[in-house]
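ok here's Phospholipid-transporting ATPase, seq below lol
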Amino acid sequence: MIRDEALNKGKQIFVQWKIWRVEYIFSDKTGTLTRNLMEFFKCSIGGVMYGNGITEIEKGRAQRDGLNINEVKKSPTSLYEKGFNFDDPRLMRGAWRNENNPEICEEFFRCLAICHTVLPEGDEAPEKITYLAASPDEAALVTAAKNFGFFFYRRTPTLIKVRESHVEKMGKINDISYEILNVLEFNSTRKRQSVVCRFPNGRLVLYCKGADTVIYERLTDRNFEIKKITREHLEEFGSAGLRTLCLAYRELSNELYESWNEKFIQAKSSLRDREKKLDEVAELIEKDLTLIGCTAIEDKLQEGVPACIETLSRAGIKIWVLTGDKMETAINIAYACNLINNHMKQFMISSETDEIREVEDKGNQIEIARHIRESVKQQLDKCLEEAHNYLSTVSGPKLALIIDGKCLMYALDPNLRGKLLNLSLNCSAVVCCRVSPLQKAQVTSLVKKGAKKITLSIGDGANDVSMIQAAHVGVGISGLEGMQAVMASDFAIAQFRFLTDLLLVHGRWSYLRLCKVITYFFYKNLTFTLTQFWFTFQTGFSGQRFYDDWFQSLYNVIFTALPVIIVGLFDKDVSASLSKKYPELYKEGIRNMFFKWRVVAVWAFFSVYQSLVFYNFTVSASRKGNSSSGKIFGLWDVSTMAFTCVVVTVNLRLLLACNSITRWHYISVAGSIIAWFLFIFIYSGIMTPWDRQENIFFVIFVLMSTFYFYLMLLLVPVVALLGDFIYQGVQRWFFPYDFQIVQEIHRHEPEASSRPELLQISNHLTPEEARSYAISQLPRETSKHTGFAFDSPGYESFFASQQGVIAPQKAWDVVRRASMRSQSRTPKPEG
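and the structure came out like this:
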């Protein structure tokens, strides 16, 4: 237990040390860059696309291309609720019955309503029911089924009840019970979910939904035209930044199901490798599927993500996005958040090529693997050659790499990972699509161990835990996917944009403070020790101590402890606003400017210099000095004088090293020096029968009665610190650090108060929060009424109306005014 606590504390110090040296950030997309608030937006059923909306990604792409997109007017049948933002009169309110393929539309909606693990909660009414889902995607799909007329409202261990509208004829509603026989759950390896259900008429159907790459591998050879059109729709949805899922089904015979179910039960009851056996059994039935269509779900970007990524890029940090979405979706999200732009040279390594598709259609898995491996090798060689050509030019463009999960699997092979690493390190941005949690961790480890760079991983869900733990620094976002990422991380934040403050502000300050604390500890202990070292030359290395034992014991504990703690807590070179205004300051940490051997050597040099000053000045001056009684100074007089100079000087030296000095710095330095004098007054002024330090008795009083003491107390610290003063002046004038230049630029500006920060934050509030914030800033009358438990100052509505803020009347305002009126009508008793 003690060892675990020690390891935990050591890791915390290590993380604080690395937080300002992060050079690579690995980020998840869903819930990290986006809000994880899924809305059913578009779909494709039987090769026909439905949905008329325009996404934010499409608007941004049109704006980049200089095009104007007119807003699509909402139809009268459009409907919006949490998880559903769909508009197409061809499907709403039973209109799908008039389509050319109503049967496949019916299968599409039924698949949405049945193939899931959602739990309904609340009243069994469409307006009041709420869905508890493992992910927001599932809740959005079930909500879509409800709005299309297939209302899932009850679940038991073996049944799902769906209220179906307009199936037999328009306006007719039927409550149908579907028997759930088997559930093949989703995981990061399978990338799909299936349900085997029995209809009331005995029909057996397997419904399956999952990633397009997985579903298309398991489709039947029929309906080639629908597969081709749906693939085009998937690419179009991906280009709009939408998250896609494919839906398919398979008709099962009783004999086929019974034989398969026996194997399923055996695998489920297995005690060893249960998950592996279940996946193998699932492969036996999840084949020869018939494609129904695909869904497109919108997940909007979080606020402030583009500005945050741009700021971090200016700080010299390279950002990699590792996502399970389609390549088109990931690319457009990367465009929307300023990760890549049109001025970058983009290298794409994809398995979605015509040659690979032709090989995949033949179905020979060995040939497919060989062909993809060769294709990846050729594309890596080609991209590496182009990258070296671009980098050899003076003003070449920045580079970006985009690779999908299937190609990444072969690129991470030991024979190719060196080329992948070389290419990736030359790119300013990398986007990995359709990757599994294991691949996320492998990519992170590739840079961490292969390139020896400081890495940071950020994610919000359980599938990001391996990536977070593989990096030097892990950051978890407390979002809608649970607390697994937060519990596995070193830091927890609410949104991605707060990464700017974590790295550029707190990371910088933490690194600077740690560097200063470590080097100062080294300096003050070396200075203290060297004064004793010089004394050994005079004693012939006899072992005679120079300082009293209590002086040595309390030097680090009391006399020099508090000031360095204050520096470790409060020191900062520039304010938080300037740290974010000049993100280039972060590059000093990446280059480790403040903890190089040169910096340590400078501290060591001045330690040697000051120790020589302490020893030689005090010893040389004492040779001609006498006490008030005429006696010459002895060993303990000289050592006490030298120790006094050491305590005063090393505490004052810390003030020279501080970038910002507060009253706590003055209090700690003055307190440490006063603590020394109080100690020596008491220690040398009291003699007890058990005291063996009779040599120190009355020493300080003898010293303070001489001119020698006051001369040394003034002269020695000045001479000792003169070298530091000159060095820091020359360094600041002729060889300044970046933060010192920023300090000079803003030297005459007062440090920003908290009020502008509050106003800046208020710009990011929702309209409801902004209104509440505006009301909170209104002037208030001091309440004199205390008759109610929740008394309010009231009159907010009056002040709000004066300043144009709408503030509703509150119940306690009305009660209070009525109370005040009743008090004014009550006659005062005559005196």
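fwiw The chain has three domains: 1-31+302-495, 38-300, 508-745. kinda neat tbh
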